[in-house]
Amino acid sequence: MATSVSPEELVITVDVNMAKDLVSSGHLYLDVRTHEEFDKGHLENSIVVPYLFITPQGREKNPQFLEQVLSACKMEDNIIVGCRSGVRSLEASAELLNAGFKSIKNMGGGYIAWVANGFAVKEPQPQPQESV
């Protein structure tokens, strides 16, 4: 009888300080938030592939998630996966590992913790007001 492994048992979660060091040393950063969340602010050079979409019916998993990640990353890449708080990224990390990715780490605390630590983010530039 096969026992299922929970995402917490399968995935290595690192804190934001370790994630920052790993990204600085060349790990890719995969942001699994929605495009709307990403557009409000994100880590420089992030790859964005939403894990869930917000729909009128609620949250729905992105049916092309693996395919979209594979189009941006290789199975051998060192990847840090992050979201807003660390919940979606944990699930996404487990799915990537189950699909055969070799080096996946979840960023605990997510984007909220990254910002709370004062780490650099890329935010949208305010558009200049047109004079009337």
From TrEMBL:
<dbReference type="InterPro" id="IPR044684">
    <property type="entry name" value="STR17/STR18/HARC1-like"/>
</dbReference>
<protein>
    <recommendedName>
        <fullName>Rhodanese domain-containing protein</fullName>
    </recommendedName>
</protein>
<dbReference type="InterPro" id="IPR036873">
    <property type="entry name" value="Rhodanese-like_dom_sf"/>
</dbReference>
<dbReference type="Pfam" id="PF00581">
    <property type="entry name" value="Rhodanese"/>
</dbReference>
<feature type="domain" description="Rhodanese">
    <location>
        <begin position="23"/>
        <end position="123"/>
    </location>
</feature>
<dbReference type="GO" id="GO:0003824">
    <property type="term" value="F:catalytic activity"/>
</dbReference>
<dbReference type="InterPro" id="IPR001763">
    <property type="entry name" value="Rhodanese-like_dom"/>
</dbReference>
